[in-house]
Amino acid sequence: MVSRSRMAVHPSTAQEGVMTRRKSGAIVSLLAAVAAIAVAATTASAAPAPIVIGWAFDSKGAMAPFDGPALAAANIRAKQVNAKGGVNGRQLKIVTCDTQGNKPAIAKSCAAKLLGQGAQVIFTTCDVDLAAPVVQEAINRGVLAIAPCIGTDQMGPKRFGAKGRLAFTFGNVAQDEGSAMAEYAWKRGWRDAALATDTVIVYFKNVVQAFEARWKQLGGKIVAKESYQSLGGSASAWQNVVSRLQNVDADVIVTSTAPPFGAMVPILNGLRTLGNDTPFLNSWAGDGTYWVTKEPAVSNYYFVTYASVFGDDPSKAVNTLAKQVKAVTGGFIAGSAAIDGLVTAIKRAKGSTSGAALAAQIERFKKVPTISGLVSFSPSLHSVFGRQYRVIRIQNNQAKVVGTIAAKVVPKI
Predict the structure, then answer these.
(1) Which pLDDT belongs to residue 66?
(2) pLDDT for res 7
(3) Among residues 1, 40, 107, 269, which one has the fewest Cβ atoms lying within 10 Å of its Cβ?
(4) 316-325 vs 333-348: helix crossing angle, rounded to 10
């Protein structure tokens, strides 16, 4: 007999065994691939949703020199935050809409569009009057509204009522800025001030009012008070202001206005053409050298601002960022500071992006560190106070930091 171990195996039986093993291996591989895809899909679905910031900005109008750099700086800051893991594991995502000169209907439409795209926080332009349509659209839906550099206490309940508790700005409140300007002027030994108030927006008016209040507290004298309208005003009216100021004996002429609004350069150059070299002190609205003229060259012109864009800021981080965004005014830094503040608020709110939860945290900010310095808010002041200003002087069209100043008092106006 032939033993079982040596029995012949039919060829077809052997082939079937091989094929069975191959099919089993293929099925195992297929199941493994399906499992891997399922795991990947589960992981993707489990990834935290981004925190969406909707930004309505002006790329074409009078606020473009301020909005554009602030947005650019914010984008850089958001990328830096994301590179470190985001906010509690969530990435920041900025989506934008151009208000095309802050036209009210377009601005409101922008806000609605951004909210429709899932924006959990809305950022807006750097003037409260122009920002109003966007702010109202956001706060009416319970969404936090932030401006990087509005400079008035009206960005909050004072203007927008109870819902205004959701509105904040990382700009310096005008009372603080005007006070700092007065303290710097006093420090320089100037004692007689002439005031020139641009009436076109609240911020401009409030800065000069705050300067006057603090100036009188310090013991300074107001020797003249002029007013003018920049946007919508006339060259002849501006020249009348020049003529009257020319006849005033003052140590310093104080205003708050922005070159793109039209009146500042004619008034300043008008005085210089008449041989009046009195120091001219402006708020951060008059920051930058993009507006200077060759003839006459700008000299003895001072302004306070958030940061220097001329490579000589006391902070190396600020100098680096200014170069990255090609900033033309120091207000750019408020874009980054606003991101810093928002991140802090979200973390303190344990990850919530609810407008009410974030507002409650921001109102409690006391000397919170940002790239722009320490910032504070309060239930009544939804604009920054206590920040250190850079004082910059333009001489022969060249700008240079000549000091820093922080307001010791925030006067009532």
Answers:
(1) 86
(2) 39
(3) 1
(4) 110
